[in-house]
C-alpha cells in the first residue's frame, strides 16, 4: 500500500505536464518539492486553518489547482471540487457540507458566487483567487501570489512530521457526486484507493512507463469529476496530439455532428470516397473485434488504401494521429456514435465505474471490446382468457455496447438477477471508497457487510464475460400495468432512428402508456453554453432532404412543421416495431422549444439527463399526453401505431 505523497516524490523528476500557453507550450514539473510551498502556509498562517484538517474547495481544473491539490495531500488536507457552472446555492452546499476552510476560485465571476453565500459558510477562513488581478480588497481575500507568500520562510520540520504521520487508508480526496437524482454526496477516497487504481488501470491498458516514454493527455474536464466540458477542444487536441484521450459521450457526439456537417458540404466524389472508406473501416474493425483485436493474417488491401486516403487525414484533423487509445465513460453512449468512429478507424473504448469506485471498474481494450448488435431470441409470455401455447419470437435486440471486463484485482457480482441474467451491478476491490462524508446511513446502504459496493446500475454478463449495462434502478419506468422498462435503450433507439433528435426522455412511470419529450439539434452559444434557436448545419441538411425549409427550432417545435413531424413519427414507428410488447411502444411525443443543457438545468456536468428536473420543468406538456380529452390526432399526439 502506498500514500499519494510517496508516489509524487518518486515520480517528481520523471513526470512532466504539457500546457498550452502564450507563445506555445511550456513544461511544468509536477514535483513534490514544488508543492511544499503551499503546505508551508499551514505553518505560517495558523489563523486560516483548523489543525491539520483543513479543506480547500476549487472551481476549475488548470495547472494552478494541481499545485494546491498536491500541497493539500502533503499536509493531510482534502481538496474538494465545485463545477464552474454551479449556482451560488450549489457552491454553498458543497462548501458547507465539507466544512471548507479555504475556497480557491478562478476569477472575479466565480468569486461573486462565493461572496453571495459567504455569510452561510461558518467554517470559511480564506478565499483565494488564482487568476486575474483582484478587483476588491476584503479581509482574508488573497491573490494566489499573496497566499503563497504567507508560507515563505517556514521550516520544513512541522510539514515532515505531518507527512510521516499519514497512512495509506487515510482519506486523501473528497469528490462530490453530480446530484443527478438528489443532493450531492461527498465521496471519500483514500491514498490507497487512488494509487492502487492508477497503477492497476495504467498496467491494464498498457500505458508506457514514464522512465521510457512520456504519454501525452489533455485535461479539459473539471477535476471535481473523475471523468469535462467542450470548449476549443479540437484546437487543443491538434496542438497537443495526445497519445490517449478520454471524452464523455457528449464530446464524441459533438465531434460526430461536426464531422457530418463538414462532410455534407464536400464534393460528390469526396462523399462517395468517405462512404466507401467507412464501410471498409467498419467491416475491418468488426472483424478485429470478433478476433479479440487480432488481424486475420494479411491486412485487406482495401483497408490499407482507405487508411492512406481517409483515415490518416481524419485522425490528423482531430488531433488524434498519435492517439492509440480513445475512451468514453461517465454516461451512456449510443452504438451509432461508437460505430461512426469505428468506421473511421478510431475505436472508442467504453469504461465503466463511478466516483465511489475511484473511477473505472471495467474497461474495454483493443483486445477485448464489443460494440455491434447481435440478434437474440426472447420468449414472450401472455396470459390470455383461455390457455394458449407460448410463442417464440425472433427480435433484434438493441443491446448497449459492452463496457468491457473488470480491471485485474476487481470483482463484479450481479445482485438478484432476473430470468435474463440482469441484476444490480456490485463492485469489490481496493478501489472501493471509504464512505460518504457525514452520511452514515447512505454509506451503509451503498456498502454491504462484505465490502461490496452497490452501484444502482443494472447489468448482465455475456457468455464471454463482457459486462453490459442495461439500465439504472432509479430510472426504471414501471407502467400502470406493472411493466418494467429501462428508458435509455428506447431513447437511444429514437435518436438513432431520427438523426434530427438531440435529446430524448421517455415518460411513463405509473402511466397507462409511454410518451417522449424530444429536442432537436441546435447551435450552442459558445460563451454561455445556452442552446440557441438556430438549427445546426447537419439538422438543416436533414430538413432539406425531407423537403422542409426549417432553419430554426421554433419552426419545427410543437408540430409546426408537418414534414418534420411526419419524419419523426416514421422513425418512432420503426422503433415501435422492434418493441417486445405493446407496453413498450411510444404512443405520444412532442418536440420542445429548447434543447436540454447544463445552463438550463436539464443536464448535469457530465451531460447526464436530470430526469426529475426535466419532469418538473415540462409538467404541462407531460400532463397533456395523458389528458382523457386529448385528441390523439393532434400534431404531436399521434395515434399509437397499429
Structure description:
The protein is α/β, with parallel strands linked by helices. Among the domains are: 4-166, 3-Layer(aba) Sandwich (Rossmann fold), CATH 3.40.50; 231-351, no CATH class; 477-625, GMP Synthetase, Chain A, domain 3. Helices cover 34% and strands 21% of the residues. An 8-stranded mixed beta sheet has the order 7-6-5-3-4-8-9-19, sandwiched between helices. A 5-stranded mixed beta sheet has the order 10-11-12-13-16. A hairpin with a 4-residue loop joins strand 12 and strand 13. The termini are far apart.
CATH architecture assignment of the domain at 4-166 = 3-Layer(aba) Sandwich
Quote the CATH topology of the domain at 4-166.
Answer: Rossmann fold
Percent helix range: 25-40%
Give the number of DSSP strands: 28
Q: How would a textbook summarize the main sheet?
A: 8 strands, mixed
Biggest sheet, spatial arrangement of strands: 7-6-5-3-4-8-9-19
Structural class comes to alpha/beta
Distance from N terminus to C terminus (CA atoms, Å) equals: 62 Å
Mean pLDDT: 81
Give unreliable regions as ranges.
Answer: 15-36, 43-54, 223-231, 373-398, 629-636
Beta-sheet strand percentage? Answer: 15-25%
Q: Looking at the structure, what is the overall shape?
A: globular
Corresponding CATH superfamily of the domain at 4-166? ANL, N-terminal domain
CATH class of the domain at 4-166: Alpha Beta
Number of helices: 21
Computed over alpha carbons, the radius of gyration is 26 Å
